[in-house]
Design goal:
single chain; mainly alpha
Length: 369
Protein backbone atom coordinates (compact mmCIF):
# COMPACT_ATOMS: atom_id res chain seq x y z
CA UNK A 1 0.00 0.00 0.00
CA UNK A 2 1.24 3.47 -0.88
CA UNK A 3 1.10 6.11 1.81
CA UNK A 4 -0.63 9.46 1.38
CA UNK A 5 2.76 11.16 1.34
CA UNK A 6 3.92 9.00 -1.55
CA UNK A 7 0.75 9.80 -3.51
CA UNK A 8 1.30 13.51 -2.89
CA UNK A 9 4.94 13.26 -4.00
CA UNK A 10 3.87 11.48 -7.20
CA UNK A 11 1.27 14.17 -7.96
CA UNK A 12 3.75 16.99 -7.34
CA UNK A 13 6.30 15.23 -9.59
CA UNK A 14 4.03 14.89 -12.62
CA UNK A 15 2.07 18.12 -12.12
CA UNK A 16 4.54 20.36 -14.05
CA UNK A 17 4.43 17.98 -17.02
CA UNK A 18 0.63 17.97 -16.97
CA UNK A 19 0.49 21.77 -16.85
CA UNK A 20 2.99 22.18 -19.68
CA UNK A 21 1.18 19.52 -21.74
CA UNK A 22 -2.14 21.25 -21.16
CA UNK A 23 -0.78 24.64 -22.23
CA UNK A 24 1.52 23.80 -25.13
CA UNK A 25 -0.44 20.89 -26.63
CA UNK A 26 -4.14 21.01 -25.80
CA UNK A 27 -4.14 24.77 -25.27
CA UNK A 28 -2.65 25.38 -28.70
CA UNK A 29 -5.05 22.86 -30.25
CA UNK A 30 -7.97 24.77 -28.74
CA UNK A 31 -6.49 28.05 -29.96
CA UNK A 32 -6.10 26.65 -33.49
CA UNK A 33 -9.73 25.51 -33.49
CA UNK A 34 -10.81 29.00 -32.44
CA UNK A 35 -8.58 30.73 -35.02
CA UNK A 36 -9.96 28.50 -37.77
CA UNK A 37 -13.37 30.10 -37.21
CA UNK A 38 -12.06 33.66 -37.72
CA UNK A 39 -10.91 35.78 -40.65
CA UNK A 40 -7.33 36.12 -39.35
CA UNK A 41 -5.11 36.70 -42.34
CA UNK A 42 -7.66 38.28 -44.63
CA UNK A 43 -6.72 41.61 -43.03
CA UNK A 44 -3.29 42.59 -41.69
CA UNK A 45 -2.11 39.16 -40.56
CA UNK A 46 1.25 40.24 -39.17
CA UNK A 47 0.17 43.50 -37.51
CA UNK A 48 0.57 43.94 -33.76
CA UNK A 49 -3.16 44.40 -33.26
CA UNK A 50 -4.99 42.58 -36.09
CA UNK A 51 -8.75 43.06 -36.36
CA UNK A 52 -10.04 39.49 -36.03
CA UNK A 53 -13.72 38.68 -36.49
CA UNK A 54 -15.56 35.39 -36.23
CA UNK A 55 -16.76 33.87 -39.52
CA UNK A 56 -18.07 30.56 -38.18
CA UNK A 57 -17.40 27.59 -40.45
CA UNK A 58 -16.84 29.64 -43.60
CA UNK A 59 -13.17 28.61 -43.84
CA UNK A 60 -14.09 24.93 -43.77
CA UNK A 61 -16.88 25.47 -46.29
CA UNK A 62 -14.51 27.24 -48.67
CA UNK A 63 -11.91 24.47 -48.36
CA UNK A 64 -14.39 21.79 -49.43
CA UNK A 65 -16.52 23.77 -51.87
CA UNK A 66 -14.72 27.01 -52.73
CA UNK A 67 -13.59 27.58 -56.30
CA UNK A 68 -10.10 28.73 -55.23
CA UNK A 69 -9.34 25.70 -53.03
CA UNK A 70 -9.16 23.04 -55.74
CA UNK A 71 -5.61 22.20 -54.69
CA UNK A 72 -6.65 21.35 -51.13
CA UNK A 73 -9.26 18.91 -52.38
CA UNK A 74 -6.67 17.24 -54.62
CA UNK A 75 -4.38 17.13 -51.57
CA UNK A 76 -7.00 15.12 -49.68
CA UNK A 77 -7.25 12.68 -52.58
CA UNK A 78 -3.45 12.40 -52.74
CA UNK A 79 -3.32 11.79 -48.98
CA UNK A 80 -5.95 9.05 -49.22
CA UNK A 81 -4.14 7.11 -51.96
CA UNK A 82 -0.69 7.73 -50.48
CA UNK A 83 -1.82 6.43 -47.08
CA UNK A 84 -3.30 3.25 -48.56
CA UNK A 85 -0.24 2.50 -50.69
CA UNK A 86 2.35 3.51 -48.12
CA UNK A 87 0.81 1.56 -45.23
CA UNK A 88 -0.05 -1.48 -47.34
CA UNK A 89 3.33 -1.78 -49.08
CA UNK A 90 5.28 -1.05 -45.87
CA UNK A 91 3.44 -3.86 -44.09
CA UNK A 92 3.89 -6.26 -47.00
CA UNK A 93 7.59 -5.54 -47.54
CA UNK A 94 8.29 -5.57 -43.80
CA UNK A 95 6.51 -8.91 -43.33
CA UNK A 96 8.37 -10.50 -46.25
CA UNK A 97 11.75 -9.24 -45.00
CA UNK A 98 11.02 -10.38 -41.44
CA UNK A 99 10.00 -13.84 -42.65
CA UNK A 100 13.16 -14.20 -44.75
CA UNK A 101 15.45 -13.04 -41.93
CA UNK A 102 13.68 -15.34 -39.46
CA UNK A 103 14.62 -18.31 -41.67
CA UNK A 104 18.29 -17.34 -42.10
CA UNK A 105 20.98 -19.52 -40.57
CA UNK A 106 23.71 -16.87 -40.96
CA UNK A 107 24.02 -13.16 -41.72
CA UNK A 108 20.94 -12.16 -39.73
CA UNK A 109 22.66 -9.26 -37.96
CA UNK A 110 24.07 -7.92 -41.23
CA UNK A 111 20.79 -7.98 -43.17
CA UNK A 112 18.79 -6.66 -40.23
CA UNK A 113 21.17 -3.69 -40.01
CA UNK A 114 21.00 -3.09 -43.77
CA UNK A 115 17.20 -3.05 -43.82
CA UNK A 116 16.96 -0.85 -40.72
CA UNK A 117 19.53 1.67 -41.93
CA UNK A 118 17.12 3.80 -44.05
CA UNK A 119 15.06 4.49 -40.94
CA UNK A 120 18.04 6.25 -39.36
CA UNK A 121 17.95 8.89 -42.11
CA UNK A 122 15.76 11.96 -41.90
CA UNK A 123 12.90 12.41 -44.34
CA UNK A 124 14.73 15.36 -45.90
CA UNK A 125 17.78 13.20 -46.69
CA UNK A 126 15.55 10.44 -48.06
CA UNK A 127 13.67 12.92 -50.23
CA UNK A 128 16.89 14.40 -51.62
CA UNK A 129 18.33 10.96 -52.44
CA UNK A 130 15.21 9.76 -54.21
CA UNK A 131 14.79 13.06 -56.04
CA UNK A 132 18.16 12.34 -57.71
CA UNK A 133 17.24 8.70 -58.37
CA UNK A 134 13.83 9.50 -59.89
CA UNK A 135 14.91 12.26 -62.26
CA UNK A 136 12.94 11.92 -65.54
CA UNK A 137 16.14 12.16 -67.62
CA UNK A 138 18.40 10.29 -65.23
CA UNK A 139 18.42 7.91 -62.32
CA UNK A 140 16.29 4.81 -62.81
CA UNK A 141 15.30 5.79 -66.34
CA UNK A 142 18.90 5.45 -67.62
CA UNK A 143 19.45 1.97 -66.18
CA UNK A 144 18.17 0.16 -69.32
CA UNK A 145 20.88 1.90 -71.35
CA UNK A 146 23.51 -0.08 -69.46
CA UNK A 147 22.42 -3.23 -71.31
CA UNK A 148 21.82 -1.57 -74.66
CA UNK A 149 18.10 -0.81 -74.28
CA UNK A 150 16.46 2.60 -74.79
CA UNK A 151 16.06 4.74 -71.64
CA UNK A 152 12.87 4.64 -69.63
CA UNK A 153 10.23 7.29 -70.24
CA UNK A 154 8.28 7.25 -66.98
CA UNK A 155 8.17 10.80 -65.59
CA UNK A 156 7.96 9.71 -61.93
CA UNK A 157 7.69 12.84 -59.75
CA UNK A 158 6.90 15.18 -62.64
CA UNK A 159 4.05 13.12 -64.13
CA UNK A 160 0.61 14.75 -64.28
CA UNK A 161 -1.35 11.70 -65.48
CA UNK A 162 -4.27 10.65 -63.27
CA UNK A 163 -5.95 7.30 -62.63
CA UNK A 164 -9.19 6.40 -60.85
CA UNK A 165 -10.65 9.80 -61.64
CA UNK A 166 -13.92 10.73 -59.91
CA UNK A 167 -16.17 13.75 -59.53
CA UNK A 168 -15.66 15.58 -56.23
CA UNK A 169 -19.22 16.93 -56.31
CA UNK A 170 -20.45 13.33 -55.74
CA UNK A 171 -18.12 12.76 -52.78
CA UNK A 172 -20.97 11.79 -50.43
CA UNK A 173 -21.99 9.02 -52.82
CA UNK A 174 -18.45 7.59 -52.96
CA UNK A 175 -18.03 7.95 -49.19
CA UNK A 176 -21.16 5.83 -48.69
CA UNK A 177 -19.70 3.14 -50.94
CA UNK A 178 -16.48 3.09 -48.91
CA UNK A 179 -18.40 2.99 -45.62
CA UNK A 180 -20.62 0.19 -46.95
CA UNK A 181 -17.59 -1.93 -47.87
CA UNK A 182 -15.98 -1.34 -44.45
CA UNK A 183 -19.19 -2.24 -42.62
CA UNK A 184 -19.65 -5.34 -44.78
CA UNK A 185 -16.17 -6.54 -43.87
CA UNK A 186 -16.83 -5.77 -40.21
CA UNK A 187 -20.17 -7.62 -40.37
CA UNK A 188 -18.43 -10.67 -41.83
CA UNK A 189 -15.94 -10.54 -38.97
CA UNK A 190 -18.77 -10.33 -36.40
CA UNK A 191 -20.47 -13.30 -38.07
CA UNK A 192 -17.27 -15.35 -37.91
CA UNK A 193 -16.96 -14.54 -34.19
CA UNK A 194 -20.62 -15.37 -33.49
CA UNK A 195 -21.55 -11.90 -32.17
CA UNK A 196 -25.18 -11.79 -33.30
CA UNK A 197 -26.10 -8.50 -31.57
CA UNK A 198 -23.37 -6.47 -33.27
CA UNK A 199 -23.98 -8.31 -36.54
CA UNK A 200 -27.64 -7.20 -36.55
CA UNK A 201 -26.68 -3.54 -36.14
CA UNK A 202 -24.09 -3.84 -38.89
CA UNK A 203 -26.65 -5.38 -41.23
CA UNK A 204 -29.19 -2.62 -40.49
CA UNK A 205 -26.66 0.14 -41.23
CA UNK A 206 -25.49 -1.69 -44.38
CA UNK A 207 -29.11 -1.92 -45.53
CA UNK A 208 -29.66 1.81 -45.00
CA UNK A 209 -26.49 2.71 -46.91
CA UNK A 210 -27.34 0.29 -49.71
CA UNK A 211 -30.82 1.85 -49.96
CA UNK A 212 -29.37 5.36 -50.18
CA UNK A 213 -26.95 4.29 -52.90
CA UNK A 214 -29.57 2.37 -54.86
CA UNK A 215 -32.09 5.22 -54.72
CA UNK A 216 -29.41 7.70 -55.88
CA UNK A 217 -30.39 10.14 -53.15
CA UNK A 218 -26.78 11.09 -52.51
CA UNK A 219 -26.05 11.80 -56.16
CA UNK A 220 -28.59 14.63 -55.98
CA UNK A 221 -26.73 16.15 -53.00
CA UNK A 222 -23.86 17.80 -54.86
CA UNK A 223 -21.04 19.55 -53.03
CA UNK A 224 -20.37 21.71 -56.10
CA UNK A 225 -22.67 23.05 -58.80
CA UNK A 226 -20.18 21.90 -61.46
CA UNK A 227 -18.10 18.74 -61.99
CA UNK A 228 -14.61 18.78 -60.51
CA UNK A 229 -12.45 15.78 -61.38
CA UNK A 230 -9.78 14.40 -59.06
CA UNK A 231 -7.81 11.17 -59.04
CA UNK A 232 -4.60 9.34 -58.28
CA UNK A 233 -1.56 11.11 -59.74
CA UNK A 234 1.15 8.84 -61.16
CA UNK A 235 3.73 11.19 -59.63
CA UNK A 236 2.77 9.83 -56.21
CA UNK A 237 4.49 6.53 -57.03
CA UNK A 238 7.87 8.17 -56.53
CA UNK A 239 6.86 9.48 -53.10
CA UNK A 240 5.39 6.10 -52.12
CA UNK A 241 8.58 4.25 -53.15
CA UNK A 242 10.77 6.62 -51.14
CA UNK A 243 8.54 6.40 -48.05
CA UNK A 244 8.29 2.60 -48.20
CA UNK A 245 12.07 2.35 -48.65
CA UNK A 246 12.55 4.29 -45.42
CA UNK A 247 9.85 2.75 -43.20
CA UNK A 248 9.68 -0.90 -44.32
CA UNK A 249 12.69 -1.67 -42.13
CA UNK A 250 10.69 -0.48 -39.12
CA UNK A 251 7.81 -2.84 -39.87
CA UNK A 252 10.37 -5.60 -40.48
CA UNK A 253 11.73 -5.09 -36.96
CA UNK A 254 8.21 -5.21 -35.49
CA UNK A 255 7.27 -8.40 -37.33
CA UNK A 256 10.64 -10.03 -36.60
CA UNK A 257 10.15 -9.38 -32.89
CA UNK A 258 6.65 -10.84 -33.15
CA UNK A 259 7.84 -13.97 -34.95
CA UNK A 260 10.46 -14.55 -32.26
CA UNK A 261 7.79 -14.45 -29.51
CA UNK A 262 5.67 -17.22 -31.08
CA UNK A 263 6.17 -20.38 -28.99
CA UNK A 264 7.90 -23.14 -30.94
CA UNK A 265 5.50 -25.63 -29.31
CA UNK A 266 2.64 -24.24 -31.41
CA UNK A 267 4.53 -24.81 -34.64
CA UNK A 268 5.60 -28.30 -33.55
CA UNK A 269 2.00 -29.18 -32.68
CA UNK A 270 0.87 -28.00 -36.10
CA UNK A 271 3.56 -30.11 -37.78
CA UNK A 272 2.48 -33.17 -35.79
CA UNK A 273 -1.09 -32.59 -37.01
CA UNK A 274 0.19 -32.71 -40.59
CA UNK A 275 0.35 -29.01 -41.37
CA UNK A 276 2.72 -27.83 -44.08
CA UNK A 277 5.08 -24.90 -43.54
CA UNK A 278 2.75 -22.66 -45.58
CA UNK A 279 -0.25 -23.72 -43.50
CA UNK A 280 1.67 -23.12 -40.27
CA UNK A 281 2.61 -19.67 -41.49
CA UNK A 282 -0.97 -18.86 -42.51
CA UNK A 283 -2.92 -20.34 -39.59
CA UNK A 284 -0.41 -20.02 -36.72
CA UNK A 285 2.05 -17.20 -37.38
CA UNK A 286 -0.12 -14.61 -39.14
CA UNK A 287 -3.04 -14.69 -36.65
CA UNK A 288 -0.61 -14.19 -33.76
CA UNK A 289 0.89 -11.18 -35.56
CA UNK A 290 -2.44 -9.30 -35.71
CA UNK A 291 -1.70 -7.04 -32.68
CA UNK A 292 1.61 -6.03 -34.25
CA UNK A 293 -0.12 -5.34 -37.56
CA UNK A 294 -2.68 -3.11 -35.82
CA UNK A 295 0.06 -1.15 -34.04
CA UNK A 296 2.04 -0.76 -37.27
CA UNK A 297 -1.04 0.47 -39.15
CA UNK A 298 -1.67 3.18 -36.54
CA UNK A 299 1.96 4.32 -36.47
CA UNK A 300 2.43 4.28 -40.25
CA UNK A 301 -1.01 5.79 -40.80
CA UNK A 302 -0.39 8.86 -38.68
CA UNK A 303 3.00 9.32 -40.38
CA UNK A 304 1.31 9.21 -43.78
CA UNK A 305 -1.48 11.60 -42.79
CA UNK A 306 0.97 14.22 -41.50
CA UNK A 307 3.67 13.78 -44.18
CA UNK A 308 5.39 17.06 -44.96
CA UNK A 309 9.20 16.99 -44.96
CA UNK A 310 9.49 14.16 -47.49
CA UNK A 311 7.19 15.98 -49.94
CA UNK A 312 9.04 19.26 -49.36
CA UNK A 313 12.40 17.65 -50.19
CA UNK A 314 11.48 15.23 -52.95
CA UNK A 315 9.26 17.39 -55.17
CA UNK A 316 9.13 20.91 -53.61
CA UNK A 317 5.98 22.41 -52.03
CA UNK A 318 4.85 24.08 -55.27
CA UNK A 319 4.41 20.82 -57.21
CA UNK A 320 0.69 20.14 -56.77
CA UNK A 321 0.56 16.55 -58.23
CA UNK A 322 2.44 15.32 -55.14
CA UNK A 323 1.13 17.88 -52.66
CA UNK A 324 -0.46 16.93 -49.33
CA UNK A 325 -2.70 18.91 -46.92
CA UNK A 326 0.24 19.64 -44.59
CA UNK A 327 2.13 21.24 -47.48
CA UNK A 328 -0.84 23.42 -48.42
CA UNK A 329 -1.26 24.37 -44.77
CA UNK A 330 2.35 25.62 -44.79
CA UNK A 331 1.81 27.59 -48.00
CA UNK A 332 -1.46 29.12 -46.82
CA UNK A 333 -0.24 30.10 -43.36
CA UNK A 334 3.37 31.14 -43.93
CA UNK A 335 3.47 32.24 -47.56
CA UNK A 336 0.00 33.60 -48.13
CA UNK A 337 -0.51 34.80 -44.53
CA UNK A 338 -3.95 33.14 -44.53
CA UNK A 339 -3.51 32.06 -40.93
CA UNK A 340 -7.15 31.18 -40.30
CA UNK A 341 -7.28 28.94 -43.39
CA UNK A 342 -4.02 27.30 -42.35
CA UNK A 343 -5.49 26.68 -38.90
CA UNK A 344 -8.59 25.13 -40.50
CA UNK A 345 -6.44 22.72 -42.51
CA UNK A 346 -4.54 21.83 -39.33
CA UNK A 347 -7.81 21.11 -37.51
CA UNK A 348 -8.99 18.91 -40.39
CA UNK A 349 -5.73 16.93 -40.21
CA UNK A 350 -6.11 16.66 -36.43
CA UNK A 351 -9.63 15.27 -36.87
CA UNK A 352 -8.51 12.75 -39.52
CA UNK A 353 -5.61 11.52 -37.36
CA UNK A 354 -7.99 11.24 -34.39
CA UNK A 355 -10.21 8.91 -36.42
CA UNK A 356 -7.22 6.57 -36.60
CA UNK A 357 -5.74 7.00 -33.12
CA UNK A 358 -8.80 7.23 -30.84
CA UNK A 359 -10.40 3.85 -31.78
CA UNK A 360 -7.01 2.17 -31.33
CA UNK A 361 -6.60 3.69 -27.86
CA UNK A 362 -10.13 2.68 -26.85
CA UNK A 363 -9.55 -0.93 -27.89
CA UNK A 364 -6.17 -0.97 -26.12
CA UNK A 365 -7.64 0.34 -22.86
CA UNK A 366 -10.44 -2.22 -23.00
CA UNK A 367 -7.93 -5.03 -23.44
CA UNK A 368 -5.92 -3.81 -20.45
CA UNK A 369 -9.04 -3.72 -18.31
Amino acid sequence: MHTRREHLAAIVTILPSIILLGIFVYGFIANSIYMSTTDWGQTAAMSLDPQIESVGLDNYRDLFTGFLNVRFRQDLVNMFFFTLLFVGLSLLVGLVLATIIDQLFWGETFFRTVFLYPMSLSMVVTGTIWRWILQPRGGINVLPTLIGLPPGKFLWLSSRDQRLVFDWSHLLHYACWVLLVVLAISAYSQWRQGKKGRLAWHLVICGVLAGLIASRVLTRLRLLPYPEMHGFNDALWGVVIAAVWQMSGYTMALYLAGLRTIPSELREAARVDGGSELQIYRYVDLPLLKPITASAIVILGHIALKIFDLIFAISSPDHYPTSMPAVTMFLKAFRGNELAVGSAIGVILFFIVSLLIVPYLIVSFRREE
